[in-house]
Structure formats: C-alpha cells, structure tokens
Amino acid sequence: MESNSINYFGNSLTLGLSTKVYTNEILFFEGDINYSWIYFNTGKQKIIARTLLYIQQKIELESFARISRKHLVNRKFIVEVGKDYVMLSNKTILPISRRRRRVFEIGL
Fold first, then answer.
1. Rounded to an integer, what distance in angstroms lies between the CA atom of residue 21 and that of residue 69?
2. Coil, strand or helix: which one is 97?
3. Does residue 96 contact residue 84 with C-beta atoms inside 8 Å?
4. Burial of 20: CB neighbours in 10 Å, binned 0-12, 13-18, 19+
5. In 10 A of CB 73, how many CB atoms?
6. In 82-98, which positions are buried (b, 16+ CB within 10 angstroms) versus exposed (e)?
7. Would you say 35 and 50 are in contact if contact means Cβ atoms under 8 Å apart?
8. What global pTM score does this model have?
9. Hey, which of 1, 5, 47, 90 has its CA 20 to 30 A from 34?
C-alpha cells in the first residue's frame, strides 16, 4: 500500500553532518567566503560551513535562482523584481548583479 502524501516542507536538503533543512522553509542563502547563512521564512538564521557553490550544486535549480555572487534565492518567495533588485515576501531587498539580470528579464 503506497501513500500519496504531499510534502509541504519541500525536498529535504542535507548540508553537513547535522544540518537538514527543507527547501520550502528557506528564503535565501547568503555566501560569505567558506560559510553560508541560511535565512528561513520564520525569521531564523543559521550559518553552515559550506560554500554557496556547494549548496547550489545540491539543490534543484528550478526553485532557486543565483542572483549575485553572494545570494541564492528561493523563487517561491520573490514578490517583486526591479531593474537591479529582488524583493522577497518578508520585505528583504537583495541586489541582482548585472550579469545575472538576464535571468529575470526573460522571466521567472
């Protein structure tokens, strides 16, 4: 007997030994050299010892977009895209780099 339940938390993402997060709870990642901050939709933050490139390779890119050298954003929480910024559902404004702006000009 199979259970066809919907996973409201999104896909689980294991980052490191003890860090397991769900993609639907993450607003964005912010890279800082060899560390990354995880910003959750609950307002919590967590730092992990992983690069942003490592995280980008672990997640599915359909739900996340790399908008700058420092930011990887969950597309589900984007409410506004300006010429050089992205506004998230919690009113956080993040800059879009010139080279990555084309992703949003084509469309989300």
1. 22
2. coil
3. yes
4. exposed
5. 24
6. eeeebebeeeeebebee
7. yes
8. 0.82
9. 90
Question: Locate tokens 């901050």: which residue?
Answer: 37
Task: Give the pLDDT confidence of 43-83 residue by residue, as tens digits.
Answer: 999 999 999 998 898 887 778 999 999 999 999 999 999 88
What pLDDT is recorded for position 99? 87
Contact, 36 vs 48, CB < 8 A? yes
Distance CA 65, CA 55 (A): 12
User: How many other CB atoms are found less than 10 A from the CB of residue 54?
Assistant: 15
Residues 6+ apart with CB under 8 A from 47: 35, 36, 37, 38
Question: Cα–Cα distance between 22 and 51 in angstroms, integer?
Answer: 18
